[in-house]
């Protein structure tokens, strides 16, 4: 606990410099963290969008595994005008913590593949492989890049509240420049560039005199920047944190200072 607190204190001056101001470009460190994250993380609104995508049959010469630089053969409709495809595998399903509504599915990053030619079986060359490619891995169009130079903090954003539901890199304690998955998206009014305040729920303690339980007030614990929105989910980057954040922490629209 003391080590975590020390890390947060050391990060505090740097974290405050990361907070964007209206009509100002993002800090270079923030831009780099977003670009690195988006290279390896992606969400699809509907699982069937992944289940019906083109898929890899085998590597060249009939091998069943593909590695960086190898050719692979795929079945499904691929666009020859699309020079590169993302190679993905079905990952975690996200559901609303309160209603259990299906919100989307994570497409786990396997790498990218360069289109070579089409046929009954299309051929691609693997690039940037993060792990062995398997038969059945899906091929998706590469997502358009976020134009970080145009990512501005909106003024007078509508009030929205929700929860952090995942940390894609698998940690339990969330800190500055970590990316998180949020259970709200475009349909809820979230927009890219929006700032959110993370709220830590007050702990329940026992009053030593009355011997009755008492819940302490909730308190602000950090700031998130929304940098990629989907229909029902979004990705946010932690820009500041006064406490260690965690999955299921609540967030709400940040108040804009004049």
List keywords for this structure.
single chain, 258 residues, mainly beta, 2 domains, seven-stranded antiparallel sheet, six-stranded antiparallel barrel, 15 strands, 37% strand, disordered N terminus, signal, Bact_Kbp, Peptidoglycan-binding protein
How would you characterize the overall build of this protein?
Residues 1-17 form the signal peptide. Keywords: Signal. This is Peptidoglycan-binding protein. InterPro entries: Bact_Kbp (IPR052196). The strands form 3 sheets. Strands 1, 2, 3, 4, 5, 6 and 7 form a 7-stranded antiparallel sheet that branches. This protein has a 6-stranded antiparallel barrel with strand order 8-9-14-13-10-15. A two-stranded antiparallel sheet has the order 11-12. It has helices at 2-18, 28-40, 47-51; strands at residues 43-44, 55-59, 71-75, 84-95, 102-117, 122-127, 138-141, 161-166, 179-182, 195-200, 204-206, 213-215, 219-229, 234-241, 250-253. Strand 4 and strand 5 (102-117) form a beta hairpin. It is mainly beta and 258 residues long. The protein contains 3 helices and 15 strands. 14% of the residues lie in helices and 37% in strands. It is elongated. The chain folds into 2 domains: 2-41 and 147-253, no CATH class; 43-141.
């Amino acid at each position: 606990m003391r080590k975590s607190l020390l890390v947060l204190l050391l990060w505090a001056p740097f974290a405050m410099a990361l907070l964007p101001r209206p009509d100002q470009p993002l800090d270079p460190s923030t831009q780099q963290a977003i670009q690195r994250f988006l290279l390896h993380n992606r969400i699809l609104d509907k699982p069937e969008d992944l289940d019906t995508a083109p898929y890899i049959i085998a590597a060249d010469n009939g091998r069943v595994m593909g590695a960086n630089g190898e050719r692979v053969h795929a079945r499904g409709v691929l666009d020859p005008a699309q020079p590169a495809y993302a190679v993905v595998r079905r990952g975690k399903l996200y559901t609303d913590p309160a209603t259990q509504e299906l919100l989307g599915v994570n497409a786990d990053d396997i790498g990218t593949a360069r289109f070579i030619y089409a046929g009954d079986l299309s051929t691609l060359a693997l690039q940037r492989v993060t792990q062995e490619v398997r038969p059945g891995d899906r091929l998706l169009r590469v997502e358009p890049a976020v134009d970080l130079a145009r990512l501005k903090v909106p003024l007078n954003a509508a009030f929205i509240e929700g929860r952090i539901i995942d940390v894609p890199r698998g940690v339990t304690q969330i800190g500055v420049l970590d990316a998180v998955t949020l259970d709200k998206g475009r349909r809820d009014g979230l927009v890219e560039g929006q700032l959110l305040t993370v709220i830590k729920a007050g702990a329940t303690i026992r009053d030593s005199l009355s011997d009755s339980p008492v819940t302490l007030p909730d308190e602000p614990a950090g700031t998130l920047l929304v940098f990629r929105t989907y229909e029902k989910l979004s990705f946010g980057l932690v820009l500041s944190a006064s406490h260690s954040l965690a999955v299921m922490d609540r967030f709400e629209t940040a108040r804009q200072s004049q």
